[in-house]
Design a protein that fits this description.
The complex is a heterotrimer of chains A (about 325), B (about 300) and C (about 325). Chain A is mainly alpha-helical. Chain A is about 75% helix and about 0% strand. Classes of the chains: A mainly alpha (about 325), B mainly alpha (about 300), C alpha/beta (about 325).
């Protein structure tokens, strides 16, 4: 188990290093950071001082190592646009994005999996057909249009829910949460649906396809032949076997949720990392972009690791060769 | 030529096309979208870029069928008094141009690198496939955003404004090449192991290329829809095509500001046009994939 | 044996498959019975309807297949028209099943102990602790070494032969009166087929369990069965005591099947070859389905379908045994 985790971490390191290299290259070579930091008027002496201050006169590998060292400590320099430490900016915005992504993911899973199981079991019922048609719409609509439509209906026409911002937040240490206030929860509804809808339909279709596949297998027929109740056959034997492929896709999708939050946050003016990132792209604010890139890479790698561990927990066939011997 | 036409109508491809109503409808919708976009300057009822013809007293007219609608503006007008239908047709032109160019760029890049990886093999192959792996870990829209942001930072503002359209094409193309490279590399490996190809690069290209054309065409069609969506998303986020050449995404973004004051048509109609275009292209791509590869059914 | 009331009785069973090109009749007018403790062998080529008869008995025909006519009775009570939930209580508890391929019949994600225990707690009034104790007992009974440790192993940790032993334990653990065994040794190595068949035979005898043994291995039938039914194109061609059918088959098809059967101490992997092939379900000829291949065919065979007729030691669906027939 421990060896497994360690080997997976070592496999993930090259990816992280490659992304770090890109981040660093952006940071160090795109545009002229010195000119941007110094503003319009500066002397050559001021410039030289800043260059040596930033270590820009050092060889490439030294600069890269310094960059990594700083990144590990959460040090990404100053935002060109806001002249504040990037780490602070991200820390401020992270709770908003993470709470949004978490809610969307829970929504997608809690609704998508049961819908997938249902449509897989009762293929021809009218409700299944309705779910499938609905999922086709979910897959085809671009995220920002879903958001706009939801705003039009629920905020503009019906006036039930707010269309922008996070509502009131409560500070828990450095973390600001919107879960604990009524306006915060209300503000979360539309963005979470917007962000989760695509993943929801994807999960539903995947679970449905896997469920239909598994229900055809001999071990499900044998479970029926043993007279096990339907509940045990469907939600025990069948569902557990569909979980292996579902975990992979869902894991990847959770990463995608954080990335797609960029669009949702723009539509709903949600004060998270995505909005920060898009404002930085618009303003060519390289330090923020490179830090965001590294952070996203870290999130993806972490999710992949969790997916691998879940595999390990679900599928005993991966645990072979540990003492018991086989055939 | 006649023989070729006849062969086409006798082919399985044409047969499976006529057998699928959804595909026929998609093809018609796609054709309407594409023709409307291409011939916009000649068939659009108004020229939304002709400032002289704009009249602010015509601003915010709702669609023709509502009470205050005007017959000459079928889908209503925006804040400047521009005809929404005409703006959609001109916008679809930009969306289609960017989507097609980006897909062609991604295809050329992906096919070249895929052929190279599959034929040369070894370290180059590993390197290219590793890059593919890493890039495919991230959603393509994120990659496109990053590329766009980096180019934006690298170029002076005036230069960027001039070539913004190409930057978007480049960014979307870069975000999508790995899928093509993967497809082509796989087919190249299969072909390379057949003895006759081992002779020369020239023979490889002339033998392998026709064999990978089918899969590449399928990936390209499915990617066209994605590229159009990526462009719309970038433009919606405000980092896509320049506002002087609004695409459907730009129109949606502009219209979004008027959602609250009740002028929903300014944003919803471009949205519907975008959905129709993307959905019809995607359904055509699905059909093409199934028709060219019966095993997948 | 013939005096005891039958445990299972199948009467005029007809199974149909509606397809786009019309309805296929997979099983037509099949009748037989099994007495308590009796082993009925069912032989025939692939597609003759042997496995489907088994599936119909346990009530698990693959849709769109359905019982169109006839009755299936267990202990004198009809079970073919039960609701799913009622039939579920019979499966495993009254009728056990063994499938062909042990590599695919066991759920890969559950330990064998869990699969045994859940079968027993579903049907028997016992708790988890007792179920576990009995699970170990069953594994020992089917000859799994170190059963107490292996109880927590997953199926992939067993060899094919061992897995089929587990499947046998699973079929028997809720103490059913009847086992439907569908080609239980076909997927196994030739070297362990005999062991598994011997195990099945011994256990069935010890527990007094009757068995419907579907196979195309005549050697297995000759060793194990009391009676045998020969199926051809969805019908029973001949049914009778195993000794008679093997040694003095009355139906030309059975005779052909047995024609080259080697002595009992040698094994055949396949049935003897008969010229031609069994017709497809969509193209069953008029009259006796066997007539195009039959060496003793005469006019009537091409016109009318024979029912099972008394042929002395066995019953055979063949006009040769029609006392009023005029041979042409």
């Amino acid at each position: 188990m421990f060896a497994f985790v360690v080997s997976r971490i070592f496999q993930a390191l090259p990816v992280l290093l490659a992304v770090a290299l890109i981040s660093f290259a952006m940071f160090a070579y795109v545009g002229d950071p010195v000119a941007i930091m110094l503003g319009q008027d500066y002397t050559q002496a001021q410039r030289d001082a800043l260059v040596s201050d930033l270590g820009l006169d050092k060889p490439f590998w030294v600069q890269f190592a310094t960059f990594i060292g700083n990144a590990v400590q959460g040090e990404f320099g100053l935002s060109y646009r806001l002249s504040r430490p990037v780490a602070d900016l991200i820390a401020e915005r992270a709770p908003a994005t993470l709470e949004l992504a978490f809610t969307a993911a829970v929504l997608a899973l809690a609704v998508g999996v049961p819908m997938g199981v249902y449509t897989g079991l009762y293929r021809n019922s009218w409700l299944s057909r309705f779910f499938l048609t609905f999922s086709l719409v979910g897959v085809s609509l671009p995220t920002f249009l879903i958001g706009i439509l939801l705003i039009l209906v629920f905020a503009v026409w019906l006036g039930w829910l707010p269309s922008f911002g996070r509502g009131d937040t409560v500070k828990l240490g450095w973390w600001s949460t919107g879960f604990l206030t009524w306006s915060g929860v209300k503000a979360l509804v539309l963005p979470a649906i917007t962000l989760g809808l695509f993943q929801l339909t994807l999960i539903m279709r995947l679970v449905r396809a896997e469920m239909m596949e598994v229900l055809r297998t001999d071990y499900i027929k044998f479970a029926r032949a043993r007279g096990l109740p339907n509940r045990a056959v469907h939600f025990g034997h069948a569902l557990k076997n569909t979980m292996v492929p579902v975990i992979t896709i869902v894991g990847l999708q959770l990463g995608a949720i954080i990335a797609f939050a960029i669009v949702t946050e723009t539509v709903f003016q949600w004060p998270g990392m995505g909005l920060l990132f898009i404002q930085s792209v618009g303003a060519a604010d390289i330090p923020v972009m490179s830090a965001y890139l590294l952070l996203i890479a870290l999130v993806f790698v972490t999710i992949n690791l969790i997916v691998d561990l879940l595999y390990y927990a679900v599928d005993p066939r991966l645990r072979i060769g540990r003492g018991k011997g086989g055939h | 030529m006649d023989a070729a036409v006849k062969r086409f109508f006798d082919s399985d491809l044409w047969f499976s096309f006529t057998r699928s109503p959804v595909t026929v409808v998609s093809a018609i919708v796609a054709a309407v979208c594409i023709l409307g976009a291409v011939f916009a300057p000649w068939i659009a009822p108004h020229n939304p870029f002709d400032l002289a013809s704009l009249n602010l007293s015509d601003a915010f007219k709702p669609p023709a069928w509502s009470e205050d609608g005007a017959r000459e503006y079928v889908l209503g007008t925006d804040d400047q008094g521009r005809d929404v239908l005409s703006a959609i047709m001109y916008g679809a032109r930009v969306s289609l141009l960017v989507g097609l160019s980006a897909t062609i760029f991604a295809t050329l890049l992906g096919v070249t690198l895929g052929l190279l990886a599959g034929y040369v093999g070894g370290a180059l192959d590993s390197l290219l496939m590793r890059i593919c792996d890493i890039q495919l870990t991230f959603p393509s829209i994120l990659v496109a955003l990053l590329v766009d942001g980096v180019v934006r930072a690298a170029l002076p503002r005036e230069v960027h404004a001039e070539i913004a359209l190409f930057v978007v094409i480049f960014a979307i193309g870069i975000s999508e090449w790995p899928k093509f490279a993967r497809t082509v590399r796989g087919s190249t490996l299969v072909e390379r192991n057949k003895e006759y190809v081992q002779a020369a690069v020239r023979i490889m290209v002339s033998h392998v290329l026709p064999n990978v054309l089918g899969p590449v065409l399928v990936v390209a069609t499915l990617n066209l829809g994605l590229a159009i969506l990526s462009e719309a998303t970038l433009s919606f986020l405000g980092v896509g095509v320049p506002p002087t050449q609004p695409s459907l995404g730009t129109l949606i973004r502009i219209g979004n500001d008027f959602l609250f004051s009740g002028e929903w048509w300014i944003t919803i109609f471009p949205g519907v046009a975008l959905i129709m275009m993307v959905l019809s292209v995607n359904l055509l791509g699905d059909w093409l994939r199934d028709a060219l590869n019966p095993k997948l059914r | 044996m013939s005096n005891t009331p039958p445990l299972l009785e199948v009467r005029n069973l007809r199974v149909e498959f509606p397809t786009r090109r019309g309805t296929l009749v997979a099983i037509d007018d099949v009748s037989f019975s099994i007495s308590p403790g009796e082993v009925l062998g069912v032989v025939g080529e692939s597609g003759a309807g042997k496995s489907m008869t088994g599936a119909a008995i346990i009530g698990l025909l693959e849709p769109p297949g359905r019982i169109a006519r006839g009755e299936i009775l267990l202990n004198g009570k009809r079970i073919d028209n039960l609701r799913y939930e009622q039939m579920r209580r019979i499966r495993g508890r009254e009728i056990g099943a063994i499938f062909q391929d042990p590599l695919t019949t066991l759920n890969p994600l559950y330990t064998v102990g869990k699969q045994l225990a859940e079968t027993m707690t579903t049907h028997l009034p016992i708790g988890p602790a007792e179920a576990k104790r009995r699970a170990i007992e069953w594994l020992e009974l089917v000859g799994i070494p170190a059963a107490a440790q292996r109880i927590d192993s997953y199926p992939h940790e067993f060899s094919g032969g061992m897995r089929q032993r587990v499947v046998i334990a699973l079929a028997l653990c809720a103490e059913p009166k009847l086992i439907v065994a569908d080609e239980p040794t076909t997927a196994l190595d030739v070297s362990i087929q005999a062991q598994v068949i011997a195990l099945l035979k011994t256990l069935a005898r010890e527990k007094g369990t009757a068995m419907m043994l579907v196979t195309h291995d005549m050697g297995v039938i000759a060793e194990t069965a009391d009676r045998v039914a020969v199926m051809y194109a969805g019908r029973i061609a001949e049914i009778g005591p195993v000794r008679e059918v093997v040694k003095h088959a009355n139906h030309p098809y059975s005779a052909g099947l047995m024609g080259s059967i080697p002595p009992l101490d040698r094994r055949v992997e396949r049935l003897a070859q008969i010229d031609g092939a069994m017709p497809r379900l969509s193209a069953i000829p008029q009259g006796c389905a066997y007539n195009p291949r039959c060496p003793q065919v005469f006019d009537k065979c091409r016109e009318l379908r024979p029912d099972l007729l008394d042929a002395g030691t066995t019953r055979a669906a063949c006009w040769l045994y029609d006392t009023e027939a005029v041979r042409g």
